[in-house]
Structure to design on (174 residues):
C-alpha cells in the first residue's frame, strides 16, 4: 500500500500479527514530528452534531535526525474547555514512564502526585514494596549477593539554590 507524501494513512497487514498501522507519510526529522495517533470522541447530544474530544494515544519522533526513536503519549480531557486534551502519561524510547510530566527523569516518574499501594482485603495480609537484587546481569538469572551488596535505597531530595536536587536523607538496605 502506498500513501502520498504528506497524507495520513492506515495499513492493515496480516503478515505481521494481524496488526493495524497508522502512517504519517510526511518526511520530518524533528522532535515531536512524524506524529500518528488515535483520537476518541463522544457525542454531546443526539439532537446536535456536536462531539467532544475525550482522549488520545499518540506516537511521535523523539530525536532530531533520521533515527527511529519514538515516544508514546496518553492524553485525556479534563472537561474544562470541551475540546482540549492534555498529556497525562508518556513512555519514552528507553522505556521510561512519566505520569503528569513530559520529561522523564527516572524509570517511573510521577510528577506532583502520590504513589500508593492500596490493599482492600478481609485478611491480615498487606501488599509490599519489594526491591530485589541479583549480581547477575541477565534478567531472571540469579547470582548470590554478599554482605556489602546494596539491595536498595529510598532517597529523599530537596532543591538547592542552584536548581539541582540534593539528597537530604536516605534509607539504605544492605
Amino acid at each position: 500500500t502506498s500513501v502520498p507524501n504528506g497524507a495520513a494513512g492506515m495499513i492493515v497487514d496480516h503478515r505481521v500479527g494481524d496488526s493495524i498501522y497508522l502512517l504519517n507519510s510526511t518526511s520530518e526529522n524533528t522532535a515531536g514530528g512524524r506524529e500518528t495517533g488515535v483520537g476518541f470522541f463522544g457525542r454531546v447530544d443526539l439532537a446536535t452534531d456536536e462531539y467532544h474530544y475525550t482522549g488520545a494515544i499518540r506516537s511521535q519522533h523523539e530525536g532530531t535526525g533520521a533515527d527511529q526513536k519514538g515516544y508514546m503519549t496518553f492524553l485525556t480531557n479534563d472537561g474544562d474547555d470541551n475540546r482540549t486534551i492534555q498529556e497525562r502519561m508518556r513512555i519514552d524510547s528507553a522505556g521510561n514512564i512519566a505520569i503528569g510530566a513530559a520529561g522523564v527523569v527516572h524509570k517511573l516518574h510521577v510528577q506532583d502526585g502520590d504513589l500508593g499501594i492500596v490493599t482492600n482485603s478481609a485478611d491480615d495480609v498487606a501488599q509490599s514494596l519489594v526491591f530485589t537484587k541479583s549480581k547477575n546481569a541477565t534478567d531472571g538469572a540469579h547470582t548470590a549477593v554478599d554482605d556489602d551488596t546494596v539491595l536498595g535505597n529510598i532517597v529523599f531530595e530537596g532543591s538547592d539554590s542552584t536548581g539541582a536536587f540534593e539528597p537530604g536523607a536516605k534509607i539504605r538496605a544492605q
